[in-house]
Amino acid sequence: MKLLLFVVEGGSADASVNALVEHGFRVTQLASTGGFLRKGNTTLLVGVEDAAVDRAAEVMRRAAPGALAITLDLERYERV
Question: Does domain 1-48 have CATH number 3.50.30.20?
Answer without folding.
Answer: no
